[in-house]
Amino acid sequence: MTIQWFPGHMLETKKWLHQSAAKADVIMEMLDARIPVASENPWMDKISRNARRVKILNKIDLADPRVTEQWLTYFLKHGNARAIAINATDKSQAVRALEYAIEGVSCNRARKRKIMVVGIPNTGKSTFLNTLVGKKIAKTGNTPAITRHQQRTSLPNNIDLYDTPGVLWPVIEPPQRAYALAVTGAISDAALDFQDIAWFAAGLLLSRYPEQLKARYPFLDPIPDDEAGLLEQIGAARGCLKAKGQIDYHKAATVLIQDFRSGKIGKISVETPFDTSDDKEKNSDPTFE
Description:
The structure is a single chain. The chain is of the alpha/beta class. The chain folds into 2 domains: about 5-165, Rossmann fold; about 195-285, Conserved Hypothetical Protein Ylqf, Chain: A, domain 2 (Orthogonal Bundle), CATH 1.10.1580.10. The protein has helices at about 10-20, 45-50, 65-80, 90-100, 125-135, 175-185, 195-210, 210-215, 225-235, 250-260, and strands at about 5, 25-30, 50-60, 80-85, 115-120, 150-155, 160-165, 170. Strands 4-3-2-5-7-6 form a 6-stranded mixed sheet. It has a two-stranded antiparallel ribbon with strand order 1-8. Strand 3, helix 3 and strand 4 (about 80-85) form a beta-alpha-beta unit. Helix 6 packs across helix 7, helix 7 (about 195-210) crosses helix 9 (about 225-235) and helix 7 packs across helix 10. The longest helix is centred in the C-terminal third of the chain and has 15 residues, at about 195-210. The protein is elongated and about 75 Å long. It starts with a strand and ends in a 27-residue tail after the last helix.
């Protein structure tokens, strides 16, 4: 299975990024801390060229802190960029990320430091900018692809910050990556069957976060053995029913996905460094044994 989702403005953005990146002093790549691999910009290696590159693992308020620490260690060991984890809605953390990115980059009155903020849709690029400035100057929202055009903002200390539209690759594969993007809301819910997304989330939660499931849904006694059983119990308990008492799986899926994305189930990471295909140590995951 492959997923195709490539709005027209993204092709224009890709061309602009290639042209503008050469002028940037630093490229800040905004990632979703829950899915650091799936949320990587697909063309970043080519786009970054000779610019300093910093990975910003955003949304740590929604991610498993143990796994986030594993990712920071992983990028330090294997990555080609520095990495820092933040919540972009926190002013002190946003400022710390910016200072971390520009550390060692010189400037003077005649030359500003040019910082590009890039990433796939819905990773928090515009939120990061708004937090730094202290007011809403960039559109934000939970719908992918809110930012459609480059936006430049001048900050103190001779810094120009460029907010860019989110860019995805034309075809999303393998399926695991597509589901990781979909369950966190990085791509439109129309790109995949909503019940399939919920099935993916249910499998992840049952295998890695059963205690969080139990805390959010106390009626799970015992916790189901499979995805179908989980959706059935959620549907029955939350009144997601059709005629004659049949479970409405679409409504049950909506409950689970909304709770997952909002953080009501808890701090959940979809990917760990041990899930990466190129990690020889992936079979020795100490967190999820």
